[in-house]
Amino acid sequence: MVSLGCPKNLVDSEVMLGLAAQSGYAITDDAGSADVIVVNTCGFIEAAKQESIDTILEMAALKAERPGRRLIVAGCLVERYRQQLPAELPEVDAFIGTNELEQLPHLLRTPAATVTPRPVVLRPRGGVPQRERTRPDADYLYSETTPRQRTTPRHYAYVKIAEGCDHPCAFCSIPQMRGHLRSRRIGSILAEVERLAEEGVREIILIGQDTTSYGEDLGLKQGLADLLRALAQVQGITWIRFLYAYPTRISDALLDVLASEPKLCPYIDMPLQHAATRMLHAMRRPGSRSFMEKLIARIRERVPGVALRTTFIVGYPGETQADFEVLLDFCAAQAFDWVGVFTYSDEEGTPAFDLPDKVPSRTAEARRAKLMRLQARLSKQRLRQFKRRVVEVLFEGPSDDSDLIWQGRIATQAPGIDGRVLITDAPEGFAPPQPGDLVHVEITATHTYDLVGRIVPNHRA
Known about the structure:
Its cofactor is [4Fe-4S] cluster. It contains 13 helices and 17 strands. The chain is α/β, with parallel strands linked by helices.
């Protein structure tokens, strides 16, 4: 299995692996020895689509080396380009969309089989004209009984709490691939997390296209807040965080539960996309710069010590230098803990695709680089406050960079996307902790995104 794209896609890959293993198939991490290769693709932006195509062709070359080897392509790229892909990629034996994961065992048992796409009904939503807001009325949603073979380290796991999205962002193709919002029941999520805790998982990361809309389709007024409060009672879980919050869905009830439950990481990942009001309107995003400034102040007031991660798009059609300067000024004033910046990707089928005044790619790349340089300075300055402090760290084991040092994370660092704590020293004779253990680390140095420190045993906060 080659899994590309975001953690949401990774969960789909883990479900397919679980289905294959349940059907009696052995899983190998060596593509050269596999009888079947599955590529789970991403189709979100141009760079991700190109990576998916390149990977498919790479695996197709491996397929050609052994007669009888089969290649299956799954995921968002299939859902988005279902009609075109079979003709463009004749090397592929079968295609599986995001709503057809459960058909994988059928394909494995019957080499000549093909996937029958689920019937889809296209419907307008929210009063938006149909040509701009149609999407498959998909219904697939995994549950606590779905087999799943995790690929993340033993001490943390992603849990998908909902699928699909009902927001009208003009640049986004996700509704075309994932359908409308549909939430899992709280009991289903709770049962899955309890099982994960029994398996040794210590950190739960809740994901969805918009986790803060969780439960709206089930009639829950404060769905995410209620879910977090329930999950905080699960024995064995140390940390819980959620990713991909929507600005207008950050309620006081959600902030209150974040501030009051010790297991909930004081961390909010909230993609804002821009700060210039005219750009937000063009993107079909809510609010204004003033609204976002008030929201951020409210979050920081109600959740002491909270870390804010966000993402922005530069080079959106019609973005002027003045708009970009507004974004720079906003970032400098807010001093976010973590920032990701994307250059706009022109995606067919989205309202933004038809907009005039496209920004040259060179200009967009220059703006991205400038904003990231600003964030690097802000991050370096912010991390200096940790020097000589003793912090609680979730131990993860040997560093990704060297087996000679360890690494871990503080509660305001999510895996894979934020900085780390590099542990370079421990008392002589100190037994290495196990991944998922909490240890105390005195910070001895700081870098642009990472902290460096030494373990302090028996520390009392």
